[in-house]
Fold each of these.
Amino acid sequence: MTIYRILFLTVVLFYFDAYSQTSNNNSWIFKFEKNIEKPFTQFEMDKIIDAYGAKKLQTIISEKALEKFYKNILRNRVKIYTKKYYPEENFPKISSIGPSLNENDINSEKFNPLLYDFPFYSKKPHYYRVSQTDFLVVINPQELE
């Protein structure tokens, strides 16, 4: 009787092991826009150097996964919108996670999202108000395929 139990348990374990290895779980395949294929611009490289230094830039360029990650942040995931400011709104201020900004610094050329402690690994969008201006910085989540 015990030999049948051992044989049954062995068959069940092999079945579940084989099933778990064949399941189609692509939870780490990210979706990227086509603009990721273009090389870094000088503005983007300057932003990386400003935030992390020249040595880190070389590391990012040498690792394709890191290169795509940072290009996606700089080109697609961080957006600046104009939305009327209301004193009673609940958006966190951008100064709570990095250097304070004024409205002269808030354009796509000057703004460096890498200087801030944004939740780039979050699965939901995050919104930050630039002081008491009408500017809103939106961090979109990384999309999966």
Note: The chain is about 40% helix and 10% strand.
Amino acid sequence: MKIVLRRIGNSLGVILPRAVLEVWGVAEGDALELTERGLRPPRRAGYSHQELDELRHSLSLAVIRRHTPREIRAQILANLTRWKRRGVWVSAYDEWQKIAESSDDGALFAAMLGRDENAVRLRQSMPYVGLLPRSEVMRLNEEAGA
């Protein structure tokens, strides 16, 4: 959809179609967010479960595109070791540890990218954080929030 810039007093502005405003859930007097990627409605209080898993899936895919299975396994094991020493441990970490210690790339990719209940559950406790640059994580978060 193209939006035309119009002169409004000494400034330039846009007129947004009513249908867009309704979909965004905004009305006169509400604030919109302007980012380098465009204009958008304000962020909601949080993500739905499905949106959150889509974000985790996108993060996992980005990790797989940038790193070898060996690098991913090394990061998983390093994080798990550090978290265990600090007393931060959940049952899913036992499963991730088994996946990381095996040489089965299929099991690793299935846990990181699968759409089944087990993969979705495991992605709620992703131990491969730290492999992506902060800028890419922020970009993916912004895209998920759009």
Note: The CA atoms of residues 3 and 17 lie 9 Å apart.
